Structure formats: C-alpha cells, structure tokens
Amino acid sequence: MAVTTLPPPAADQLDIWWVPRAALPLNADRAGANHRLRHDILRRYLGDDAPLGFFRDADGKPGLACDDFLHFNFADCDGMAAVVIGADMDVGIDCERVRPQSDLADVAAMCFCENEQALLARAGASAFTPLFYCLWTRKEAVLKALGLGLSLPLARIDVAAADLARASPVIVPSHGVVWVASLRAPTGWAGGCAARRPFTVVQRT
To answer: What is the separation of C-alpha 187 from the centre of its chain, rounded to a whole number of angstroms?
Structure first.
C-alpha cells in the first residue's frame, strides 16, 4: 500500500476502509497479516516515519501507543477486512459475509431484542438473511466501541432503527449512549460501525 499522509477524520466523521484479503494458507500467520494491514492503514494518517506501537486496555480494546487522538478498530472475516478510524472517540466495527445458515432464526430468537425480531418478521423470507447480518454487525460494532466483547447479552442492545444507514443512538445498559450505522459494504458482505457521538461515514480506498 502506497503511503500518502491523510488528515485525521473530522470530529463528526469516521473513515472506513474495506480491504479484500486473498485466502490465506492454513499455516499462514493470520495475526501477523492483520497487524501489517492495520499498520499500513494507520501510516496513511501518521506518516511513514511514525513510531507505531499498539496496546490493549483493561478490557482488551486495542489502541495506539504513539497517538491518543487517533482511534481505530478492526474486523476480519472470510477474506475481507474492515477498519474504522476516528478522532478522539472510541470506535468499533464489524463485518460478516452474508450467507444463509440454517440456525439464523434460532440465533435471532436468542440474541435479538423484541424490536429487532419484529423488524426481521416484517422483512420477508428474501430479506431475512441480509437483514440478520445487518443487525448482527451493528450489535458487534457497539460492543467493540465499548470494549465489551460479548460480556453484555446481545438481546439487551436494541440496534433497530428507521434508517439503518444513518447513525442513530443506542442506549447500552450501564454504559450510556453509543451511535451506530450500517455500512455500504462490498457485495456479499454486511458491516456496521459505532462511536461515542454522532457521525457521518467516509469510505476510503
């Protein structure tokens, strides 16, 4: 990836990077490949000579040791990576391949709240699978923005919204408000991003 320094995102902006990944052999260093990808994208903002260093906080959320203003989060699934960059706010991102699976309805019954299940019921059979992954990635993005992992039951987070593509507030029990939006993902994928304040999305390449 050619290094061209970019300005940090505006206070109300999240930069989103989608990076297709070639299938890795079974013995590939997946963690190392992901680390290099994060490294390459962050250098687009910090410059080629920045002494990048990473850390994890008490909740396991990754951060930049050399810059506490720029925040990032990373997701990787089945040959696609997604990275979100924000300025001076916690951020989260998730991506999933959209594919039918026999247990999606059962997972929704366990992990989705009443509003989300009602949204799925109105969607119809053809829209069920993409909407399921849309809601799932929104939930994951909220949890990752907070650094919670799966410690909070997913059914306690209501990410249903009238306009899924527009950042909307989600009240997370004991953690306040997080804003979440669905992403314009590559064909066959779903994605969601979240942050601690309202935002607009800029797709980067």
So the answer is: 17
Helix (H) or strand (E) run with residue 69 in it: none
The residue type found at 49 is D
SS3 18: strand
Instruction: Record the tokens describing residue 179, joined without a space.
Output: 């804003």
**pLDDT, tens digit only, all 205 positions of the chain:** 445 689 999 999 999 999 987 655 555 677 788 888 888 999 999 988 878 888 888 777 888 887 789 999 999 998 899 999 999 999 999 999 999 999 999 999 999 999 999 999 999 899 999 999 999 999 999 999 999 877 788 999 999 998 999 999 999 999 999 999 999 999 999 999 999 999 999 999 8
pTM for the full predicted model: 0.92
Angle at CA of residue 110, ends 108 and 111, nearest 5°: 65
Beta strand 13-20 with 200-204 is: parallel
- Assess contact for 36 and 202: CB atoms under 8 A: no
Question: Residue 177 and residue 42: Cα distance in Å, rounded?
Answer: 27
